[in-house]
């Protein structure tokens, strides 16, 4: 079993699959287009207040460190998968190409893992929400990025007593823009961010507008309880239009069948997860996608294998997920690869 | 009852066999999935199976029949030794392995434990009519009946269970019945969640959304047969008017009840629980399904609001984790990085504080002994930091390297320096990528909890300007209590001793490895430097 497993994508899903396979003695190649490993999570911030809120963001540092130091993992940043040849039993050869050059390398692959991640929704598409136009409108990812750089002052601008509003499902559960699904991560991420903001600047007051709170996954109940205890105002509602009025934001909230205007100082939009733009190699493989554009797995309860033997998926490229679910999905992918290789070896 | 192969364990605990052995205890889908996954990767599995597990909390998938799927999985357990049990085996740690005694008196040894204890549903709230039924996987469609599915009553419904109820409501409506689903939050898990909701509406299911005000349900008539009920609720979306509906049956949809987790599972996993009482099967550093208790993995609904897709992934991921863990622990068993010398005074402090159960007590008639189990040890060094007689020798323990470093420095060099002891899993990762200020010397330690009073005061006594201990955030310490231990030491130290008429400069904070900017701010604040 000397042939490596080729993992396409160096985000937490790809890193986790490779890390677990390497931990079980298998050789992997991680192919990542970007210059650095870690993907989106590398821009996200720790949500700990006086204790860890189990956001799992810091797991990226562990995973990157492991991939960089393991002699079983060959990291190729700045490379992409150019083509794959298939045999009946699975992938045979993977041709890797260095981005921006003609350099190519052919690897005999034991298996191929697609872990190409997601694309965040661009809230600029919803012009009425004013993102990119109004100073006080942020996305959850932008808040993460500010906290990560210890620059919360860009958000508060020294103001005390800020009224902040979170709006959920921006670009999710949105049939009009072709994304009629829940992005799975944002209820918990917004609750954590609300708790984090109240911890960092205790004079802030937070309202969280939701369509429906999805209390799925581990620790979700504890987060909701903590938010209620801390006085986060939880309201049903979606944003209609956000306008600037002097120093504050006037928000039209569509709530319970009525439109009403509420003033806030800052607005944070929970943006949805969209499928990664299609990669030519996926077309070449003929991997089917579901109606929303995520890579289809074999069936919902065996969702690390694809229709093609020897080709696997891990993480958000197969559907929206939070970090913890992504790590578990990646762990499952590693397990089924080990099982399939063992069966093949026995045969 | 299937007879187990006896697994020979010699007196030193070195198994004659080389195969890895796992004991899976539990029942239900996660246990079966984990047993199958372990078997597939070549691990020797004993599955101690409870026939009568707590209610499954699942929802049917489009295109997959869960019952068939479970039967298929069970059929593939051909290489698994299955033992049907009515009582959990008694499990203890002995010479680096787990020993289990089953109810028939047989005993076996294992490298690791995987627990899937299952969970019961929260009971029907007491203020609902006594005839109210609890929604479980056994509730089937109710053709021709008028059925109310009541969700989020008193406490929010588990979304996966809510989706399951919506499917049953749709089936009821399609078969000549009438179904009303009354909720506060529509459950829309996975990419097919919205579609389920839309199709149920097309099938004729009526959805009523309520707000702060709970729905009122009362029994009609005098309790004669058949029972009838009246629902009165304000629908906050479709109208401000009260929605009143008479129905034949009420089905309450609740969620997992953390208080129902079996005592045996809590004991085996050393009782790690989150704020809601679910089993804290993992922390950030140890990933899927691993508890703080070394070598114990917990999967399934006892770990939180999981659905079936999540449970399957978690069980398989935990199987892969368990295999990697056994690989490492087998190597460690042969190593001599942890030992207890004859200087031991048998105070048992180390035995009490070890978060990984790597030190066991060997009862003896004259004097009991502390016996190290390297295979369970994560080398956090907490034991060595509390040992009053210096009897514990741990290779990773930083005391000697710190002493060596101090010897290399002149007193004048030391007097200008603040020593920063940071956990290698958080601050240590940050320190590798930043420039340390000149008036600080960073030392990565295996855990903030390993920085003993002796180290702190030794450094200060050598004339250092100050000591700063940096741990992982509370709840993210891989050694559970290490970060609290460090905080308590520093807090206590601030109130002790005076050096040259001045109180000692000692400090403590917590950090995550992705908080480089915050680390630098807090570090410079402590050092009294201007931020670069």
From TrEMBL, chain A:
InterPro entries named among the record's database cross-references: FAD/NAD-bd_sf, FAD/NAD-binding_dom, Metab_Enz_Cyan_OpOx_G3PDH
Gene Ontology terms, MF aspect: oxidoreductase activity
Family annotation (Pfam families): Pyr_redox_2
Source organism: Desulfomonile tiedjei
Domain FAD/NAD(P)-binding: residue ranges: 4-321
Keyword terms of this UniProt record: Oxidoreductase
Keyword Disulfide bond assigned: no
Highest rank taxon of the organism: Bacteria
Protein name: CoB--CoM heterodisulfide reductase iron-sulfur subunit A family protein
From TrEMBL, chain B:
Domain 4Fe-4S ferredoxin-type: start-end pairs: 336-364, 368-397
UniProt key word Cell inner membrane: no
Pfam families per the UniProt record, alphabetical: Fer4_7, FlpD
UniProt xrefs under SUPFAM superfamilies: 4Fe-4S ferredoxins, FAD/NAD(P)-binding domain
Keywords attached to this entry: 4Fe-4S, Iron, Iron-sulfur, Metal-binding, Oxidoreductase
Top-rank taxon, per record: Bacteria
Signal peptide: none
GO terms, molecular function: 4 iron, 4 sulfur cluster binding; metal ion binding; oxidoreductase activity
PROSITE patterns, sorted: 4FE4S_FER_1, 4FE4S_FER_2
PANTHER family: ADENYLYLSULFATE REDUCTASE, BETA SUBUNIT, FERREDOXIN III
Protein name: Hydrogenase iron-sulfur subunit
């Amino acid at each position: 079993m000397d042939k490596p497993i080729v993992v396409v994508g160096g985000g937490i899903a790809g890193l986790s699959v490779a890390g677990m396979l390497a931990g079980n003695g298998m050789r992997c190649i991680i192919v990542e287009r970007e210059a650095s490993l870690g993907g989106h999570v590398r821009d996200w911030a720790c949500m700990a207040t006086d204790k860890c809120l189990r956001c799992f963001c810091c797991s990226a540092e562990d995973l990157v460190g492991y991939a960089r130091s393991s002699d079983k993992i060959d990291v190729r940043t700045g490379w992409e998968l150019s083509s794959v040849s298939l045999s009946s039993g699975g992938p045979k050869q993977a041709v890797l190409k260095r981005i921006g050059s003609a350099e190519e390398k052919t690897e005999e692959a034991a298996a191929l893992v697609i872990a190409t991640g997601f694309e965040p929704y661009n809230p600029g598409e919803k012009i009425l929400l004013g993102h990119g136009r109004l100073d006080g409108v942020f996305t959850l990812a932008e808040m993460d990025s500010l906290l990560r750089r210890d620059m919360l002052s860009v958000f508060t601008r020294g103001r005390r007593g800020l009224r902040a509003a979170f709006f959920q499902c921006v670009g999710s559960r949105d049939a009009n823009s072709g994304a009629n699904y829940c992005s799975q991560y944002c209820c918990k991420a917004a609750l954590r961010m609300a708790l984090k903001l109240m911890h960092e600047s205790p004079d802030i007051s937070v309202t969280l507008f939701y369509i429906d709170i999805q209390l799925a996954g581990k620790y979700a109940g504890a987060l909701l309880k903590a938010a209620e205890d801390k006085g986060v105002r939880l309201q049903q509602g979606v944003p209609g239009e956000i306008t600037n009025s002097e120093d504050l934001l006037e928000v039209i909230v569509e709530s319970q069948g009525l439109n009403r205007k509420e003033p806030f100082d800052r607005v944070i939009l929970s943006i949805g997860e969209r499928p990664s733009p299609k990669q030519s190699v996926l077309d070449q493989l003929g991997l089917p996608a579901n109606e929303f554009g995520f890579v289809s797995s074999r069936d919902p309860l065996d969702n690390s294998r694809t229709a093609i033997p020897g080709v696997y998926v891990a993480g958000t490229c197969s559907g929206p997920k939070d970090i913890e679910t992504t790590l578990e999905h990646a762990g499952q992918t590693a397990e089924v690869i080990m099982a399939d290789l063992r069966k093949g070896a026995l045969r | 009852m299937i007879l187990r192969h006896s697994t020979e364990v010699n007196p030193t605990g070195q198994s004659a066999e080389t195969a890895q052995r796992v004991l899976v205890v539990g029942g239900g889908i996660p246990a079966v999935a984990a047993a199958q996954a372990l078997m597939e990767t070549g691990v020797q599995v004993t599955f101690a199976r409870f026939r009568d597990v707590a209610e499954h909390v699942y929802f049917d998938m489009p295109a997959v029949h869960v019952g068939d799927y479970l039967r298929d999985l069970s059929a593939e357990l051909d290489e698994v030794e299955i033992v049907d049990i009515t009582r959990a085996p008694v499990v203890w740690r002995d010479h680096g392995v787990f020993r289990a005694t089953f109810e028939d008196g047989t005993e076996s040894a294992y490298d690791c434990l995987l627990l899937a204890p299952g969970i019961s549903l929260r009971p029907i709230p007491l203020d609902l009519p006594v005839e109210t039924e609890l929604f479980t996987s056994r509730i089937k469609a109710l053709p021709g009946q008028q059925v109310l599915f009541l969700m989020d009553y008193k406490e929010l419904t588990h979304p996966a269970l809510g989706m399951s109820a919506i499917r049953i409501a749709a089936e009821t409506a399609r078969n000549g019945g009438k179904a009303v689903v009354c909720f506060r939050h529509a459950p829309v898990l996975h990419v097919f969640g919205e579609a389920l909701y839309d199709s149920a509406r097309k099938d004729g299911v009526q959805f009523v959304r309520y707000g702060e005000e709970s729905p009122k349900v009362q029994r009609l008539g005098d309790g004669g047969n058949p029972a009838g009920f009246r629902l009165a609720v304000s629908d906050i979306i479709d109208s401000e008017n009260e929605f009143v509906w008479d129905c034949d049956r009420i089905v309450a949809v609740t969620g997992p009840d953390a208080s129902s987790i079996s005592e045996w599972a809590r004991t085996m996993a050393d009782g790690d629980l989150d704020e809601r009482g679910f089993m804290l099967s993992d922390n950030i550093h140890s990933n899927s399904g691993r508890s703080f208790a070394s070598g114990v993995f917990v999967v399934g609904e006892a770990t939180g609001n999981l659905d079936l897709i999540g449970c399957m992934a978690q069980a398989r991921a935990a199987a892969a984790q368990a295999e990697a863990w056994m690989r490492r622990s087998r190597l460690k068993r042969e190593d001599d990085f942890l030992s207890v010398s004859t200087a031991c005074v048998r105070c048992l402090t180390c035995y009490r504080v070890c978060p990984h159960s790597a030190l066991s007590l060997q009862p003896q008639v004259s004097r009991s002994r502390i016996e190290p189990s390297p295979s369970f040890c994560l080398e956090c060094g907490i034991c060595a930091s509390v040992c009053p007689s210096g009897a514990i020798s741990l290779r990773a323990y930083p005391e000697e390297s710190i002493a060596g470093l101090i010897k290399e420095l002149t007193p004048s060099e030391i007097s200008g320096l603040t020593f920063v002891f940071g956990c290698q899993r958080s601050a240590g990762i940050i320190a590798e990528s930043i420039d340390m200020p000149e008036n600080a010397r960073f030392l990565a330690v295996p855990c903030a909890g390993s920085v003993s009073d002796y180290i702190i005061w030794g450094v200060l006594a050598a004339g250092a300007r100050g000591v700063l201990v940096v741990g992982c955030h509370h709840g993210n310490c891989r050694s559970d209590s290490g970060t609290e231990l460090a905080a308590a030491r520093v807090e206590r130290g601030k109130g002790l001793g005076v050096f040259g008429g001045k109180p000692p400069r000692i400090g403590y904070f917590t950090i995550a490895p992705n908080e480089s900017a915050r680390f630098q701010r807090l570090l410079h604040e402590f050092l009294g430097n201007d931020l670069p």
